[in-house]
Design goal:
By secondary structure, the chain is mostly helical. It has 12 helices and no strands. It is flat and about 85 Å long.
Length: 320
Amino acid sequence: MGSNSPCFAIPHSPSSATFQHPHQFNQLTSRLAYNHYNNNNNNNNNSYSGNGMDAPRSTLKRKPSLDHDSPMPSSGPPSPSADDQGEAKVKRVRTTAEHVSKSKTVNKLIATLNVSQLVNLISTLVESHPSLAEEIGNIVPRPTVLSVEALLSSLETKLQNAFPYTKWGPGRDDYSFNRVKPALDELVETLVDYTNHFTSPPEFPATSFAFLHIATEFGHRLPVWDNAAHNEHKTDLYRTLAEYWIKAIQDASSKLEDGKIYGQKTVQEWAEHLEHHNIKSRGRFTSAIEEFKSKLGWIIGIQPSYPNYINSAAGSPATN
């Protein structure tokens, strides 16, 4: 290394006319740094230039600018760039598409289920998440007389198909009873549940009596067994249905007190249905007939003291 060569690169100062600091200092700081730099290195400018060395970049840290033209620093988080916003939008679209795809898949799966499987599915969900019970109850359409009649018909068919086959037809012995008992219990339980539903507010009396007529017909068609003990299903059902008939009669009577008016033809039809069921059940609905005469009989000219045709129903012979 020569004697005139420094052991490390010594920066030379650029001319005052061309000096520009690579960082944007504020005006006051720039002037002070520039003057101090020139005063300390004024005598060495020529030698530095002669060596052909370039001036090093300043290592001073950037300070906040006082220049009014410079943007003010922001105290909040940086605004998302256009790329970030675009990426977030793509993610939202992708998430929405995935959700729609999953919903369609679930809908297709549910569409393949029969009624029994669908009921089991919803029941399982409610058992796992009890809070869903109220929400489901609010959005499920209310059952109609026709829809429930169709359900009861399917359960009745299920009962008939459960009988063991013999060349003499369905048996009525203990073996046959044990074979069909699950289906029999399901039919009776469902019948009672919906009878309670249709005789409770806010159902109207016309709906209540219409369903009672249908439900009682299903009761008449229940099998009669060789063993009398097995016939308790039918006996208990008659007793329960008679109580619901009385309940419907009392509800209709209370609405009369509130100003509700029933046509004679409608009330006459209710009376005829009740008489019919009392005859077929061998007088199981006598108490309901008495309640009907007391509460609604006057509408069709039947008073408690004048039984007319409906009073004779209790003593009429029954038919199977």
